[in-house]
Amino acid sequence: MTQPLRYPTTPNGRYFVVRGRLWRCSNPALSAEARDELVHDLMSARRAVRTALAAENTDALAAARRSVDKAKLRLGERGPVWWTDGSPDLNRHMARTTPYADWFASLGETRE
To answer: Which domain of life is it from (predicted)?
Structure first.
């Protein structure tokens, strides 16, 4: 996964948890090279968002946000889920209100 190791990852590897909220991980089927390229694209797009905000350029901001979305879609962090078992997407749900609640509670003091 591409998320920092300090965030707990669900046992099935689909989500990592930040402040109690689930965030979808990137697709583990991506090659390391493809993932690296997409993460590079994502970081460039995020820098473009920051630049456009600072310049108060609404057209550039819209384009940069589209680039962020495109990179996240290609990484599998947005859009159709990358798993095939029919489980719903719980991205952005609070872990305590999902089927991961018991797992999350078991983390105790180490959870974010």
So the answer is: Bacteria
Q: How far apart are CA 2 and CA 36, in angstroms?
A: 9
Tens digits of residue pLDDT in 55-104 = 999 999 999 999 999 999 999 999 999 999 999 999 999 999 999 999 99
**97-109 burial: b if 16+ Cβ within 10 Å, else e:** eeebeebbeeeee
